[in-house]
Amino acid sequence: xxxxxxxxxxxxxxxxxxxxxxxxxxxxxxxxxxxxxxxxxxxxxxxxxxxxxxxxxxxxxxxxxxxxxxxxxxxxxxxxxxxxxxxxxxxxxxxxxxxxxxxxxxxxxxxxxxxxxxxxxxxxxxxxxxxxxxxxxxxxxxxxxxxxxxx
Length: 151
Description:
There is one protein chain. By secondary structure, the protein is of the alpha+beta class. The N and C termini lie far apart (43 Å). It has 2 helices and 11 strands; from the N terminus they run H-H-E-E-E-E-E-E-E-E-E-E-E. The chain has a single domain (2-150), classed as Jelly Rolls (Sandwich). Strands 1-2-3-10-5-8 form a 6-stranded antiparallel β-sheet, covered by helices on one side.
């Protein structure tokens, strides 16, 4: 029971962080920014339908919401090789699955309820233990391919 309460607390805290960042980004967005529509996105339904488009080998992704200052994405990853983003901070919440994240020179196990914070310029990679790692990703500002360096 204590583990369940702890897991619920971690999920709630991570969700609050992601939502707080998204709300802060929306408030700071210029009036010309595209505002997301009010809606509920059922993450587990999207994962069950397995319809996410593949963007790289071992990586499926779909954008859920975004403005000029932030984007929220759902990712299914078997592995994504080491890379850096020069201009954005990423917040990665583990929804389902387990694996390893490489941050700089260290490697750590991640599992549901974990939140990974990746500042600009920090080399990082993800590898699922088995199957896929289902992640909720928030990037601020939104990243572009030109701002990503593959290592």
